[in-house]
Amino acid sequence: xxxxxxxxxxxxxxxxxxxxxxxxxxxxxxxxxxxxxxxxxxxxxxxxxxxxxxxxxxxxxxxxxxxxxxxxxxxxxxxxxxxxxxxxxxxxxxxxxxxxxxxxxxxxxxxxxxxxxxxxxxxxxxxxxxxxxxxxxxxxxxxxxxxxxxxxxxxxxxxxxxxxxxxxxxxxxxxxxxxxxxxxxxxxxxxxx
Length: 193
Hints:
Layout: H1 5-23, H2 28-40, E1 44-45, E2 49-50, H3 59-65, H4 75-81, H5 100-112, E3 140-143, E4 149-158, E5 161-166, E6 171-175, H6 181-190
Antiparallel strand pairs: 1-2, 3-4, 4-5, 5-6
Helix pairs in contact: 1-5, 2-5
């Protein structure tokens, strides 16, 4: 699959920023493996069948499909986020696709270092400090508690979460507790609180 520069940029934005906003240090066994078992096991599990030489229950197969720290260079990541009409999309033909939060968890795991065994991965290094917020309606930096940032537009507060719109037009709901104190304050200020 060949990725256009725009798609690659969008993938990198979602993978390196937003995924970490919602996940922090992810745990493979308790958080990600159940999703893979639900979405991928019918075609990628020794218990049923193994297509494409990828078995979700064998950590060695992840090494062939995932580049630690680089979701945009990881076949697994680009396949699950590809459009339905892409020849490399997984699962094919719009079958039981991952939801945006499930995709975000996978991208966070890869960004964090891509350990596909039990336990959490070591968080990525902190991003530089966030600059002052731009005018209303403009993209601004949102930083999670692990220091990872993404550029997105504030949409609204929903209870204890902020809804932001990424450059690709997708909306994401991020719990305020997963954001840095500065980004929490930014959300409250943008909401007029």
